[in-house]
Amino acid sequence: MEFAALSSATQLGTFNPLRISLQNPTQHNPLPFCYASFPSSYPRVCSCKAILSTHTPTSTHKMFGPHSVDFELSALTALSPLDGRYWGKVKELAPYLSEYGLIYFRVLVEIKWLVQLSLIPEIVEVPSFSESAKSFLQGLIDDFSVDDALEVKNIERVTNHDVKAVEYFLKQKCQSNAEVAKVLEFFHFACTSEDINNLAHALMLKETMNSVMFPVMDKIVKALCDMAKDNAHVPMLSRTHGQPASPTTLGKELAIFAVRLSRERKDLSQIEILGKFAGAVGNYNAHVVAYPNVNWPHVAEQFVHSLGLSFNPYVAQIETHDYMAKLFHSLIQFNNILIDFDRDVWGYISLGYFKQITKAGEIGSSTMPHKVNPIDFENSEGNLGVANGGLSHLSMKLPISRWQRDLTDSTVLRNMGVGIGHSLLAYKSTLQGMGKLQVNEARLREDLNQCWEVLAEPIQTVMRRYGVPEPYEKLKELTRGRTVNKESIRDFIEGLDIPEESKMNLLKLTPDTYVGAAVELARTVENVVNIVNGSNI
């Protein structure tokens, strides 16, 4: 293994071109090559057991690459961090969004379609199945395993067609049941591959959202509601344009995100997951020729509904994917709101409004021992960005297909798990970060006590009520670009020609009591969220 020449000198000495050869290239090494370069005076063996020697590269030498290592897929060799570093946090998506999940749902659709055919009186060639046969077929679904999926993949190596491999797999499996074996050719009857695929993808998304994503979203909203109520009374200096503004409460600001996210979560839950089952170009061409007396559009609608999906009757070869675009766009919006939250909390931590509970053994910085970084919110923000990039491409590409169908959607659909996986990872990071937060009320009050100028707003508003001329201009003269404190504000109020009762009310105001209805808004946020969702969190 070769490295490009390094020419610059440093304080440590002159760097030489290096060559690395593994001591034992046949033995698996978790660090199969080393791309560190050392001064010539350094020892010639690095920590990964590779031998370093000076070497002048030629034009035939490759610069990098573990040429003698044939990697097997593992957490260390996976190209996506979702399948490596972060697997433990996203693995609950695997039953639905992996290759296994796609094959499983294809198997389910193929079997359910065969059973549907047995219920159509005009199709005498597929008589109604006995309870025993139905149980056998259902068992193929219920007991479908990773080994079964691997068997399908082995068949695909021969067919070079993933959906046909599922059909052949089922025909093999059903040879052992005499009743089903008589109707094997009715597996995949009148179907185009996309009849099977679009329903499989729809079921993958439906189960993913219901089983994994919605529960985690609900946890975030619930955590926000709890924090909002717990901190409903905690006054906080607002900042607009980064500058001090009218006070609020910490709880009310958290409540805003609870309501925003709950609305988006509701919109997601109301998106219709659609399916088609209309043959090669959406017209039931082969169906009608084979059985002209069957009402195939009605049969297809019944079948799609039986899977818990909504029916799309107007399609070409593929389902139009418009619902997918809507779903992914809505996920992006949920993620955008969460990015806004992550950044706000990051800022509040920076201001000292939140402390972070430390964990024994954790390190914040490799060189600054005092650091406790807001890594959970930073990880969340980063992963939400990655997620939105992938989801944006899905939502913009999938509704577009040349004429009655091109294949560009196929490879793109295999990446649904990327955007959703990074979203899930981000949600969990946000929740983890929220669990470490500890409100620093003393710091919050300190900022408020430094900003008496925020009382200019209520004073000039009361002055307007009683007809005091130029109230805004007078407060602007008092506060803008000047140091304002409790005494200067009180002196100004004392000199106002307004009713005594109103003057006393203004004198009682402080930056930490001037919060309007913020406390009540925070305390009642869960009621609002429940109304939005139509149910309790």
TrEMBL record:
**Molecular-function GO terms, alphabetical:** N6-(1,2-dicarboxyethyl)AMP AMP-lyase (fumarate-forming) activity
Q: Where is the Fumarate lyase N-terminal domain?
A: 85-385
Keywords, sorted A to Z: Lyase, Purine biosynthesis
Q: Where is the Adenylosuccinate lyase PurB C-terminal domain?
A: 401-515
Pfam families per the record? ASL_C (PF08328), Lyase_1 (PF00206)
Enzyme superclass (EC):
lyase
**What's its catalytic activity?**
N(6)-(1,2-dicarboxyethyl)-AMP = fumarate + AMP; (2S)-2-[5-amino-1-(5-phospho-beta-D-ribosyl)imidazole-4-carboxamido]succinate = 5-amino-1-(5-phospho-beta-D-ribosyl)imidazole-4-carboxamide + fumarate
Q: What's its EC? A: 4.3.2.2
The GO biological-process annotations, alphabetized, read as: IMP biosynthetic process
Keyword Cytoplasm, does the record have it? no
Q: Which PROSITE patterns match?
A: FUMARATE_LYASES
Q: In which pathway does it act?
A: Purine metabolism; AMP biosynthesis via de novo pathway; AMP from IMP: step 2/2; Purine metabolism; IMP biosynthesis via de novo pathway; 5-amino-1-(5-phospho-D-ribosyl)imidazole-4-carboxamide from 5-amino-1-(5-phospho-D-ribosyl)imidazole-4-carboxylate: step 2/2
Whether Ion transport counts among this entry's keywords is: no
Q: Which family does it belong to?
A: Belongs to the lyase 1 family. Adenylosuccinate lyase subfamily.
* Name of the protein in question: Adenylosuccinate lyase
Organism, per UniProt? Phaseolus coccineus
